[in-house]
């Protein structure tokens, strides 16, 4: 499972990064005889949790449905850049980044016929704070009293302090119908009214969600599809079997080990795009031998991450040497990634042996525990690290834990529970999502379990960058922070996994979006998915 949008919740960090496994499947491909014109069956990787109110939902697979029912104030295009949707243009900045003014388009409507107004936008941005939902950390810097509707088409956002990612992250918020939602919030969560191209028709927990194309959609283009049905197959082999047998029109996440097989089949197309995902190996910096940076460096030198990624993920992922995914860096940050690559610990068995012998206080009694989530790739990574440590004379153990148990374990900070853990995070196109949530001390024991104390300025610099509007100033602060992460290795970056999909060839216009919550992107200014007769 993969979470989206920056929020300090343990649930989101644990779920990042869908697992990949080899699917042993047999069967033949059904042609387009199983497809009906205008009707799409999409098989998700994970069952939605059933919260379809954007103010409440913190689950990527529910948000994939939300994305079709609601329009955002701004929305990401396929280049991962924000474009106005319900907004008429770019935000107007005032008061040195502590106030933004946004004008709305004048013809947007909700699916019940209500006009989309500035009051609806204000409610969408302030309700997570006032109601203390799980999404509150994304909005905590908003001044609720100062954020108001200037008139029906003008919104004023006041911030408690400048927030550099406001115009790259926060403004991509879905807009709810305030009057309908506040009249019956519980009903709104399972029977939503949005302004997007599809209406919410029906759902059954753990079974399906059904949407219908909205004939009176205010935006452009009008949806080609008449209906969309979401079902799920959490087992990779199950999804692969379905697409090969023609039992579904499209699936999310193609397991790397099955990519070649599916791509070689007639009548099926496979798709891949970079995403802002970040998988990593974290070290317990609170207790145990891995509080010593030399021990952490020794472990990092004991194996080759790039060889692991190449062998286990192939073209489905990119090795990383910093906590900033490549797609984020390419959006104008221009970080010194080549320097970090050269400085990061690479495979060097002799150096690993030396650092561990010198750094371990009790080498004869060191039996580190590596905890991982229950997916094949991250289990394989944990086992690779353990085997290399075993070769060096240390008896490492890998424990694959379900997400609930892993949550309770990695936040403990106790060496008896773990000294390494492997997890992932998927955020948006701004470094704040990764550095504040995964490294700032405020989130220790919440979205991070490494408890890294850092240098005197480490946490201050992360917070200062978060509260600074200018990108140049933020970049300078972030470079220093990441320099320290690369050098001291509280976390070892692993890889950024791509978003992938497969679809029957009669599905036209489908392509994966960098933001996993936008998949499948069925209607936008760049695409309009249809079923060929």
From TrEMBL:
Solute-binding protein family domain span: 81-444
InterPro entries named among the record's database cross-references: Peptide/Ni-bd, SBP_5, SBP_5_dom, TAT_signal
Family assignment from sequence similarity: Belongs to the bacterial solute-binding protein 5 family.
Pfam families linked: SBP_bac_5 (PF00496)
A GO molecular function held by the record: peptide transmembrane transporter activity
Gene Ontology process terms (BP): peptide transport
Protein name: ABC transporter substrate-binding protein
One cellular component (GO) term of this entry: ATP-binding cassette (ABC) transporter complex
Keywords linked to the UniProt accession: Signal, Transport
